[in-house]
Design goal:
Largest sheet: 7 strands, mixed
Distance between the termini: 106 Å
Structural class: alpha+beta
Radius of gyration: 38 Å
Strand content: 15-25%
Strand order of the largest sheet: 13-14-17-16-15-18-19
Mean pLDDT: 85
Helix content: 25-40%
Shape: elongated
Low-confidence stretches: 1-17, 105-118
Number of strands: 25
Amino acid sequence: MERDGAPLSVPPLRIMPDPLVARCIYSGKCYMIPLNQCMSFSDLYEDVFRTFQFLPSDVIELQYSVPGCEACFLRSERDFQMLFCGARIHKLECVDISVLKIGGSCNNTCSVDSRSEVVDEDDYLGEAFRIEVHKSYLSDEWSSYIHHVGEKFHGAAELREKLRKYAIAVGFEFIFLRNDLDRVHAICSNVGTEGCDWHLRAHSSSANGCLYITELNNIHTCKGVVRTQKHKLLGSKVVKTCIAADVSYNISLKPREIMSKFKSTYGFDISYKVALKAKQSAKEAIYGSDADSFSKLSWYKEAVLESNPGSSFVLEVDPSTNRFHRLFVAYGGCIEGFQFCLPVLYVDGTFGKSIYKGQILSATGRNGNQGFYPLAICFCDSETETNWTFFFKHLKSLLEPQGRVITFISDRGTGLLSAFDKVFAGHPHLFCYKHLVANLAGKYRGKGNSVMIEEVKKKFFKVAYSSTEKEYRFNLRLLRQEGGAEIIDPFLAEIPVEHWCRAFYTGGRYGIMANGIAESFNSWISLERLMPVYCMLDQTRIKQMEQMGKRRDEPQRWTTELTPKMEERLKVQMEKSRRFSVHYSSHGVYEVRSDFSYVVNISEHSCSCVKWQINCFPCPHGLAAIQAASENVYDYIDKYFRVDMFKKSYSSPIRPITNVDMSSSESATDFILPPLAKRPPGRPRVKRFKSIGETEKKLIRCGRCGKMGTHNKKSCTEPLVQ
């Protein structure tokens, strides 16, 4: 009630000693509920909605009757208080509340009239013609987001979001007449064409800053208010709020997967463009923007150096433009533990997947249980000689104090070889044979069929795995016959043989032939490569920290002298050694015989099969000689394969970092511009192009010529010999 435009104030009521009983009636059914002034209108509304089992898309209205007024609206808290006033004035103990369904969906049962029996036609139809049972969607609750005056929202953003979802669930569109931080006024979009009177007003409270619905007409008089599978308001802003948790859990989620999951979870269709934009918005909301991420690197550098003593963090920024240039980071726990790992380092580079792309250079070691051990990473714009030199110089500063000769293995990437020769001159350097064979296969592009290329690859493997010079020369002759000397000789002339063939490498290579450990690390951080640079570094640190913690606890359950994988390898080699007969020659020297004879010198840890020297692990011939000499086989196994060395490699943890004081730190105000990166044309790629040698093609038998190859009967061009 209002008088002269001013709302009539209602004096505070005393709580009635006995509760008022309400008789709620809908469609001939009734139930009783006690009312008291400790309840609210929303409590009554939800109880009625739940008791009569309305669908989430249904809209109901409540009316009550008192003497002299057969239909009083019950739409808000004010109406709810007036119900108690009327009951007190007329001294009522029971009030009838009528429940009216004014909108929403209808069920699939129908009746001829109110006296006829309700028949469900699905009982008489075949399985293919029955209507499926209603499925519950997460969007079903959206229809209850807007329902009464006085509803509270924590800011205009929450009201806008819930209003959009409500309109999508109910099935109408609206427009804003006013859309400010402190005031919102929305009307039905059909107000001009059909005169629909649906409208909503909300105002902000100066006391707490929240918005309250002050006026609401929740009844539509326009046509076509029905929920559809597509909706104009179902844009990326709404979808973003629904998929944020999924993107946080799996940042590599594809738009097609988002579309499918949104359909099955929320019951609505969205376009590919909306799914893609929603994912990008959700990613930015979770991890921050790619551009702003570079400004956090100054703070992150201070946090790493403060929380992890002994770490190395080098951040280079162009002083003239204040743009990011490159960085190098290695954590103190990894540096300390690496001296107890195998003296080998796998060096490789992979590309970033954020909008600024960039390259991630990494140096990864190997622990005594054959697992990878991340040591250092570098983020820069590209794989150039300058950037590789920067990476190797800072890597050298970490390795020199440990006093070990490190064997490096890598591909023959751009700028890597010249930078390595400058910084690590004289250090052993092996080339990954898989990259070499891929490069060799590329020489036959347009010059040979797939069968010949596969044979060349197999013979090159045999050349690379040759254990002696005689075996190397023999396998090389077969390779030249198969692949042609005019291609093989120039290719091998560019590569020093000691960098790729086992027979000519004099140091301990621990059986390393390929750069697989580095590839494993690149795959391990594949999700982090999608993130902005700050999040990429921080999430990679967390993965390293958790990995080191787990591997620190693992050895507590081990009961062997060697790590599990090496202990298993020893058992296999010991079993193979049983078939050999051993003949003593001189101190530490034995002849081991079976089908062939081998010379073993256990004092020098060598065998004429060369496998002991190459793998740094006793071969079966060596184990047979050690047992014949009544020696302990564990005394002849490399120290890095022992459990105590494994424990020491993970004894120094990576310390956690807190960011609660990031905003108050002086370095947090440093503004670093992102690097200049020209966006390439077309859709951004997240996978690299594979070379011809890396692409494995399945061989099939042609139905025309009968030969094995990659062609079929239709594409066959082979001459037929009668």
